[in-house]
Amino acid sequence: MEVKLEKRFPLAVDAERAWLVLRDVRAVAASMPGAEIVEQVDANRYKGTVKVKVGPASANFSGDVELLEIDPSARRLRISATGADRGGSSAAMDLTASLEAVDGERSVLLGSSHVIVNGKFAQFGGRLIGQVSDVVLAQFADNFAARAAALPKPSATPASAEGQAAGATASRKTELSALAIVWGLLKNWVLALFGRRA
Amino acid sequence: MNAPVERTSALAGIGESRLRKEDARFIQGKGIYVDDVKLPGMLHMDIVRAPVAHARIKSIRKEEALKIPGVHAVLTADDLKPLKLHWMPTLAGDVAAVLADQKVHFQMQEVAVVIADDRYIAADAVEAVQVEYEELPALIDPHEALKPGAVVLREDLAGRTEGAHGARTHPNHIFTWEAGDKAATDAAFARAPVTVKEQLLYPRVHPCPLETCGCVASFDPVRGELTTYMTSQAPHVVRTVVSLLSGIPESKVRIISPDIGGGFGNKVGVYPGYVCAIVASIVLGRPVKWVEDRIENISSTAFARDYHMTGELAATSDGKITGLRVNVIADHGAFDACADPTKYPAGMFHICSGSYDIAAAYCRVDGVYTNKAPGGVAYRCSFRVTEAVYLVERMIDVLAQKLGIDKAEIRYRNFIRKEQFPYRSPFGFEYDSGDYRTALAKVLAAVDYKALRSEQAAKRKDPASSSLMGIGITTFTEVVGAGPSKMCDILGVGMFDSCEIRVHPTGSAIARMGTINQGQGHQTTYAQIIATEIGIPSDVVQVEEGDTSTAPYGLGTYGSRSTPVAGAAIAMAARKIHAKARKIAAHLLEVGDRDLEWEIDRFKVKGDGSRFKTMKDICWAAYHEPPPGLEPGLEAVHYYDPPNFTYPFGAYLCVVDIDKGTGEVKVRRFYALDDCGTRINPMIIEGQIHGGLTEGFAVALGQQMPFDAQGNLLGNTLMDYFLPTAVETPKWETDFTVTPSPHHPIGAKGVAESPHVGSIPCFSNAVIDAFSHLSVTHMNMPHTSWRVWQQLETCGIAR
């Protein structure tokens, strides 16, 4: 199945520091719950894994990530990723992410992705993909912002911030938490009953 | 001496609502299904399936799976290749991959099998088999598949411009099949003052029997014998196929279909799982069990329908139909494995002129390959009859609407009249008997049709009404009992059926049949036919089916053929016994054959009622003192090749209320009148009709197999796939008329499928009738609340 996601996450961090995280594939992956870059193949290609656990079902995707374009002037990045799980699911994603400055303290992370999911995840998870990705991406944005905010202010030491994104010590979840997802789904469902979404 | 009435009821023969003999074991959980079969040393098989719909297989690595303790073997297409079993012939003249050979053609296709000590180890090992795929674009829409430049699915057929049913016009095209008179039909349309045309999609659905498919294959390497317990609706045909494929003499192949938990067409075919379990048993020399789970059953075994139909009617301005034209694009999935008589790739779809006297008719069906599972079975219907009846019953409503004629009235104007039987249809069928007018009139009177229409009219005028009301009518004719061997065969074997009756010295009997019960109550009804024919109580008649080593060769049970074909074989075998019994009676009574008359359970000397021999007396004598020159014993075999199909019919009416707020369709009333000719067991008929109506309700209001653009099946669990329970199922009202078949020995026509075939368009007609005042002429199934609500939105009347 094909999913198109257009997301906008306001960040309580300036665009410059956020860009330092965004341009670093390892840092982006590290912000994504359950995801990890395990190997850098060449300048633009990586191998990675994503662990997903929802209730009793778990999947362990492994695959390739390729950096297609990185445009510092527009603070924009394009990557493609493909992966498969041994239980019979596969996914491919094209993602364009960019940052918009709001003011010196805040920015907005814009993500536009086109995801194709095949196999069991599409068959059984199809109706949940929208809601699950909302929850996952919200966690991602939190992690991402925390990671960026942990970097030194750009005005202070711009040069030394280079390369620190991946090593930033902001707390992050290492796996997609089943409880968090279920809670997130439940919260959204209850809010939807009253006509609004979280 | 007992009175004739008492003696008749003691037999519990034809016409009695005898309780089902099968139920004692089923309601106590004592049935024996394939999964109940446990043999010593038995191993278990599980299947590695493709996660994607279309892909090239780059590699299959089985080392890791083989390392798991308890795993005996992992088989792939390459392992089956030396045995030439990596592909197998289908019933439709095509070939199907047993295990994906270099390419995957549909999601959940069988790629490899694992054989292990138990089911759990096998399942773990399935995950350890590593398959690398190179994904290809999937073709899901059959219209897209026929476009120039479309991705070619079947590379194994490259360059073949001739298929099993004539020319192939595109690499994804399977066949073109035509019936009727195109020129005369086109001329009728050119002349007609009124024509209507509609696109009707009959979506892909699945029969979804409660018991999934499976087998236990047991090859005895010492004796060279193969015994396989299998969920099969046609065990003898399977035996022939297995023998042809394996090279084992047919006499050493034994197929046993034990109790079967519903078939509905799903268990007609030969599936890769059966073949692989048999191969594994031969290779390993141990019994191998394979039983699929629900998801595997819905995803990979035979689907039904998937007909994209364009229907057209030509008519006079007062609603007399003068022409019918139909064009169909039939989505057959990745391999053409439709279960149809060999010469009919679209089955009996040409019954689509229905109950109406139409002078000119033409239909054309084009079969197309797509990246979906193969199949195309008759889901509780005779071959493609459901599609045909849906088409004509929908189109006549469309015509009525265009002309502003009442939907019952337009049927009266077009019915084949009682005196026209036997009636030759424009497609060449010879309808045996029918009385459509009487049936419809009885239904309309029973429901007070006029009052319903008045209520509907009042509701439409009331702007405050929170619901829409719809009235659906169908007056359908089925063609069942395939079939005359001059027209119908499966793999070259004529579609006769058979019965062997052995009457024992003490007056009981055993009948063995070529058919196989899947819930139809054969053990009950077959015994009733014998009871009436030869005068021994049905309670002492055992009926056995499903074991090819004991039963005579038969073509199996599907397409409502058991009663029309096997039921006739029983009557004919019983009549052979009856004829011999007469000779024995004459000998015992020391009179000539012709001096005897038959009465219920005995032969009497004409004119002297005190001198008689009961059948029980005769049975003993047959073994004790047979007449000189006559062999002892009382047995007969009959192979019945029907002279014609039978044509059951019915008139159904459905009233629905549609909630304008939610789109929910509530069935207020469903009145079903069926005419299946002679009624053998009214209670079983009633049960069959309830079952068929419920499955019809399921199809019309909820069942579908949705695919996304990548070929993922998005509804292969019972969470998504609608199986109605007692909670959802409406109340059914049933009724009947009796118009016997003139060519059937006891006049019976078959009934199990009529309620399915007849009810589906009836639900659709009712739902669409609710919108008919808003210029809506058609809505595709399933009529789920969401889809109906969208229609309410489009019409601007949703609340």
Give a quick set of tags describing it.
heterodimer, A: 198 residues, alpha+beta, 7-stranded antiparallel sheet, B: 799 residues, Aldehyde Oxidoreductase, domain 4, 3 domains, 7-stranded mixed sheet, 5-stranded mixed sheet, 20 helices, 34 strands
| Name of the level-1 CATH class of the largest domain in chain B | Alpha Beta
SS class of chain A:
alpha+beta
Estimate percent helicity of chain A: 25-40%
Which consecutive residue ranges of chain A, at least 5 long each, have pLDDT under 50?
157-163, 166-173
**SS summary, helix count of chain A:** 5
At CATH level 2, the architecture of chain A is 2-Layer Sandwich
Mean pLDDT of chain A: 81
In round numbers, the mean pLDDT of chain B is 96
What's the structural domain tally of chain B? 3
The third-level CATH topology of chain A is: Alpha-D-Glucose-1,6-Bisphosphate, Chain A, domain 4
SSE string of chain A, helices as H and strands as E: EHHEEEEEEHHH
Architecture (CATH level 2) name of the largest domain in chain B: 2-Layer Sandwich
The gyration radius over C-alpha positions of chain B equals: 28 Å
Q: Main sheet of chain B?
A: 7 strands, mixed
The CATH homologous superfamily name of chain A equals START domain
Strand order of the largest sheet of chain B: 3-7-1-16-13-14-15
CATH homologous superfamily of the largest domain in chain B - what is it? Answer: Aldehyde oxidase/xanthine dehydrogenase, molybdopterin binding domain
